[in-house]
Design goal:
Oligomer: single chain
Shape: globular
Strand order of the largest sheet: 3-2-1-4-5-12-8
Radius of gyration: 18 Å
CATH architecture: 3-Layer(aba) Sandwich
Number of strands: 12
Helix content: 25-40%
Order of helices and strands: HHHEHEHEHEHEEEHEEEEE
CATH topology: Rossmann fold
Structural class: alpha/beta
CATH superfamily: Vaccinia Virus protein VP39
Length: 275
């Protein structure tokens, strides 16, 4: 199957799941409207101050993370390839009175279509596995950033992709050499029992080394890289949820594995004008 057909299958799958996610307990839209944040506690700490910064969120889905950054004082723009998701994001922004911009765009068209640069480019959890071409992705990020601007990405660790979807049995390869993984599972991670018709989707596993190297080759400078022994959903049956947060960890005594990682990079500042 050609990559454009893969993209259209993914778009149809995501379009169908927008209303399901809006109504799901996982996303808790009602709680968000009341003031909760979708960001992990470590994200604002690692990224640093965002008050007054222009922030672009790539692959924003229906905007909860984007609008969470708006609540930190950032001036936010979100893009996603799903029109239903962008309509929902605009409605949510209006509901909470946020001054946010949302556009239906492909990631690889963003720099040309938006025709501006940002202080921060952000991409959130579960995003880059939907992109087959990291080189084009990284070039877009470089072009979208102001000189000295920051790129920040918290992401699920691709090491977890080698395991069975419920058990710690190794069933997949970590190095897929760019081959898409086809899935036809009905329902959605936010509601596994939901009735769905558009169930074919394609993802790509990107080893962490490839992600970092691709961004560096695009011209970005690595400032920090962290691996985390927790995640934000019950990825494996053995994980235990924290009492006061959505953080899930293996219990005491269980071997610790990397479940998430986060990268902070910076675009070089513009050279000073000669005297």
């Amino acid at each position: 199957m050609k990559s454009d057909a893969n993209l259209e299958a993914n778009r149809a799958m995501w379009n169908e799941r927008v209303p399901i996610h809006l109504d799901s307990d996982l996303y808790d839209v009602a709680g968000f409207i009341e003031g909760s944040s979708r960001l992990c506690d470590f994200e604002p700490l690692e990224l640093g101050p965002t008050e007054g910064c222009s922030l672009l969120h790539l692959q924003c889905h229906f905007g909860l993370d984007t609008l969470s950054w708006a609540r930190t004082g950032a001036i936010v723009t979100g893009i996603d390839f799903s029109e239903p998701a962008i309509r929902a994001a605009r409605d949510l922004a209006a509901t909470i009175g946020a001054d946010a911009r949302f556009e239906c765009l492909e990631v690889h068209d963003a720099a040309t279509a938006l025709d501006r640069r940002f202080d921060v480019v952000y991409t959130g959890r579960g995003a880059i596995c939907w992109l087959p071409d990291l080189d084009a992705w990284a070039r877009q990020i470089f072009e979208l950033l102001e000189p000295g601007g920051r790129f920040y990405m918290p992401e699920f660790h691709p090491f977890t992709d080698v395991f069975h979807h419920e058990r710690l049995d190794v069933t997949e390869t970590y190095f897929d050499e760019g081959r898409p993984c086809r899935d036809e599972t009905p329902g959605t991670y936010a509601d596994p029992d939901a009735t769905t018709l558009r169930n074919v989707s394609f993802t790509w596993t990107h080893p962490v080394s490839k992600v970092i190297t691709t961004l560096v080759r695009a011209g970005l400078i690595l400032e920090s890289f962290h691996e985390h022994d927790f995640t934000v959903f019950p990825r494996f049956a053995a994980l235990r949820k924290s009492v006061d947060s959505d953080i899930h960890r293996f219990p005491d005594g269980h071997p610790r594995l990397p479940l998430m990682y986060s990268i902070l990079m910076r675009k070089p500042s513009a050279p000073e004008d000669p005297a």
